[in-house]
Description:
This protein is an alpha+beta fold. The protein has 28 helices and 17 strands.
Amino acid sequence: MCGIAGIASTTAPDPEIVRRMCDVIAHRGPDGAGFYNDDRVALGMRRLAIIDVATGDQPVHSEDGQVVAVFNGEVYNFAELRQDLARRGHTLRSTGDSECLVHLYEEYGADMVHRLRGMFAFAVWDRARGRLLLARDRVGKKPLYWRSDGETIWFGSELKSLEQDPGMSRETDPVALHHYLSYHYVPAPWSIYREARKLPPGHVLVWERGRATLHRYWTPDPATREVADENEEEERLRELLLEATRIRMVSERPVGAFLSGGIDSSAVVAAMAMQSPEPIRTFCIGFEDSRYDERHKARMVADRYGTDHHELVVTQGMLDVLPRLAGHFDEPFADSSAIPSFYVAELSRRHVTVALNGDGGDESFGGYQRYALMNMARRIPALPRPLAAAGARLGATIVERSDYGTLRRRLGRLIRFAAEPPSRRYAGLMCCCTEDQKWGIYSDELRVLLSEVDSGALVEDLFLRSRAETDLGRALDVDIASYLPGDLLVKVDTTTMAHSLEGRSPFLDHHLMEWAAGLPASLKVRNRQTKLLLRRAVAPWLPGELLDYPKQGFGVPLAAWLRGELRDLAWAVLTDGTARGRGLFRPPAVRDLLLRHMGGADHSAILWPLMQFELWDRARAVQANVGVACAGDPTGSARG
């Protein structure tokens, strides 16, 4: 696991900029650094040594020195790759995975990505051709940002690396901001800055002579296969999960697991325990509010498998971490479960260097209640177009004129949901903030800039382009392409790397995901029962009581926190001179939202992303001023 950065250009790049690009991501790789430069490229990396600790330094080179690579991630099938490359006549000087990249490139060019099993973001420089290849793993576990001006390309594991180039503008992209408020994260390919982009998951980028071209190399095949025996499918799922877990336990550093008490993380811990001669170290976060606390469920699994179990309770008094947390994120990020994720990573790093988790189980096997809702909604007959349009308008009007949390508002949402086509239904389910909420706070200038931008169209387009045979399958495809890499994997990568901890996700093994994609929808969601096959498959591994609990997620009591411990911070960062002077939002509208929330209404869905945007931007301003990656006082007027 590492952080990477670099510059390729038609003219000689400045290697000192690349060193600074790596310095600001030292938390991703505290065990060392490596650099390479010639007359057209400068590459750098920071290393967190997990495998091949003794000889795994980077950059890595081909035998003749013409191909050079830097790599972030883990390739789990490296042993098989090394054997094949040796048979083909290549000389391997190390014992790990990184060196495989240069030789795979020599053999297969950009098609090398199809032979990798793991999580990765890497850069390969072909000196003879003057070609730079950037690639990101199939699901997007490892991040990669880039920008290009037609002559030069800059790239890095984190956006703050790109910011080290003095020529980069930090102008906010209003479209990215609009999408962020809708989804609580900035979706790929946008970044919060106009000039920078994310390389989407499952894509490669080839830069040559100043020109960058992208293409997608992976998407799961949703074609449903016939299932003759469901018991055999359960057994096959167990086999795949055991194997995916086993190869992710390979490490020269201590390994543990996040254990939330949900089915996915519990199944991973069970799979680890069944394949380990030593007790597994497990880590769990709890809350004082029992509605959000799942420690009792985690203890059931920990007791069953005799794990070395560790717990931490997140209290309101621990929320002073928010400015620091905002500084770690490359962009504003409003998934509030980042708070417990940050603390469970911090707790884990005191004991281990690698932590497995349950991410990806819901998206492959149908774990969210919204999937059950979409599955049941297929029974709603299609309405004639004029009637459907009238129903959607009626529902939207009721929602707009109702207070949050009221029966009237829920009725309006139901009417709108029933009247809309499936693609629009799912877009509505995935948007955290409505268009009315956003337009209610936008300044006149921002309204003009965004007058033709519809965030819901992002989900609609993915839904309509999906090749799945059912609305449930299309919803799963949407989440694998958007919510999973844009929200969940960003959260885990950022919070673990903040503590130099490597996170690994067995459910995101692409062999397991491709197998799951072919399952009939009825084995994923049936009526209101979610994750049907997965529940059955892991039932022999887990306490029966655990399987009956409804899905809880990694939520936090956000609305209450904003009225309690976070009240003063919210008022400070949303109403001070810095916030008012941006020209993005209408101060009276923001103040009215705060007052109504403090009075008992729940406006956390819009207040929280506004607050995180302010904290993120002020942290960036402090980092720019002092020249190091650290967060400052969020209540200060760093810009004004």
